[in-house]
TrEMBL record:
This is DNA-binding transcriptional LysR family regulator. Residues 2-59 form the HTH lysR-type domain. GO terms for cellular component: protein-DNA complex. GO terms for molecular function: DNA binding; DNA-binding transcription factor activity. Belongs to the LysR transcriptional regulatory family. The lineage of its organism: Bacteria, Bacillati, Actinomycetota, Actinomycetes, Micrococcales. It comes from Diaminobutyricimonas aerilata. Keywords: DNA-binding, Transcription, Transcription regulation. PROSITE patterns: HTH_LYSR. InterPro entries: LysR_HTH_N, LysR_subst-bd, WH-like_DNA-bd_sf, WH_DNA-bd_sf.
Length: 308
């Protein structure tokens, strides 16, 4: 099999018509270039150049292999360019998994910026209803980075984007309306808009209620946090909704818990050797969590860990 260096020497001699000039162009000594050409000629079993005092001329065999030799050399150069560009995070494919409530407020704004700043990078976004489902996809090699609440278990790289407050949502006619805060314990026996089992919020809220001795009264279960907020606003009951999932609905009554309740929002990176995933996670951290329209002066939240 001809070496790439031998093919580079062959193409350079074709282009310059001189062994000495080709050697200078490739930063080689002339004996080294001649050695590579001789190796290629032995591999092909034919002479490629006729030597004469004023330079060299290609033989019919050289003319025949010229297009393929150039294609191999250019393909190799393109491979190096692409590899270096990918290593620098300027090109490639990035598969992003996101919790459903975090696509629009967290991932979409950064994806829009990446489309502008990194046009050679292809972004593929998929959603899941729980952090643990995203971890499973990462471990299966189906995703490169995931944006979600902190999962039950993860041994790879993790970047904390911020702490997201979880708030009470109800309608204008509810007894909580007009309150400055609500204690979690006051949710006891309240009609509650809960989450479907596949949404990680369901288990997280149930575990919290169990620890605090609160019996919830689910009137319905939904998969999406935005749906829970909408049903609570419509008067079906109260809901606990993460800040990033709050709808821009003036009819919604949104009340902080006292003490405040929050969960970490993180970026999980499958491989520390993936420059695109690492860069995307770091850009998420730099942007931080978006703020909703409710009181920005609310007190800092005490986190309750759990997959949600």
């Amino acid at each position: 099999m001809p070496s790439l260096r031998a093919l580079e020497c062959f193409v350079a001699v074709l282009d310059h018509g001189s062994l000495a000039v080709a050697a200078r162009h490739l930063h080689l000594s002339q004996p080294a270039l001649s050695h590579h050409l001789a190796s290629l000629e032995r591999e092909l079993g034919t002479t490629l150049f006729d030597r004469h005092p004023r330079g060299v001329t290609p033989t019919p065999a050289a003319t025949a292999i010229d297009p393929d030799a150039r294609a191999v050399v250019e393909g190799s150069r393109r491979l190096v360019r692409m590899g270096r560009s990918a290593a620098a995070g300027r090109t490639g494919r990035l598969r992003i998994g996101t919790a459903e409530s975090m696509t629009a407020p967290l991932v979409a704004p950064l994806a829009r910026r990446w489309f502008s700043d990194r046009p050679q990078v292809t972004l593929e976004v998929s959603e899941a209803s729980s952090a643990d489902a995203l971890v499973a996809a990462l471990e299966a090699g189906e995703l490169d980075v995931a944006v979600c609440p902190r999962p039950t278990s993860w041994t790879g790289a993790i970047e904390v984007i911020g702490a997201e407050e979880v708030l009470v949502v109800c309608c204008h006619s509810h007894a909580f309306a007009g309150r400055a805060t609500v204690a979690f314990e006051e949710l006891h026996d309240q009609r509650f808009v809960h989450y479907a089992a596949e949404n990680g919020l369901a288990g997280w809220i149930d575990a919290l209620a169990l620890r605090r001795g609160v019996a919830l009264d689910p009137v319905t279960r939904v998969r999406h946090a935005a749906s829970a907020a909408g049903l609570a606003t419509a008067g079906l009951g109260v809901a606990l909704v993460p800040r990033t999932a709050l709808p821009e609905d003036p009819a919604s009554i949104v009340i902080p818990l006292d003490p405040p309740l929050s969960r970490d929002v993180v970026a999980l990176v499958r491989s520390g050797h993936d420059p695109l995933a690492t860069a995307f996670a770091r850009d998420l951290v730099a942007r931080g969590l978006p703020r909703s329209g409710i009181d920005d002066d609310a007190p800092s939240s005490a986190r309750e860990d759990g997959a949600s």
